[in-house]
Amino acid sequence: MGSLYDVTPTVVVGPVSRGALVGALTAAALGVGFVEMRKNQAPATDSDRWVQRTTAPDYRDRHVVFGFRRDLVRAGDRVLLVDDWADTGATAVTARQLVEDSGAQWIGAACIVDALTDARLRHDLPLRALLNVRTL
To answer: Which part of the chain is the Phosphoribosyltransferase domain (predicted)?
Structure first.
């Protein structure tokens, strides 16, 4: 079965917690690596080894700090974000920034439910979904 995108990912990124579950399953099905994008990670002794970004306001009007270890996503990787739900797109936009900060290639985002309020994000990310919130 081919990828939804023009380029097959070499790494799948999934935000904690449900995104990490569906992301890990997607990575296993594709036979590629998986990286968990952690939320509000407390400073650690190896904080210089982390790449972090803060989201725009999410659906609860919160700003969340996401990140992962710098050595898990490298230049030359082709990265796909997988999550359960896309509402404001803040998580996906932040994931894209983290991927680009790592020197890797962003190929897109995939989710189970698309509830995006800004239709431009579907094209800009690009985002693919199994269901649209209007059909639920």
So the answer is: 5-120
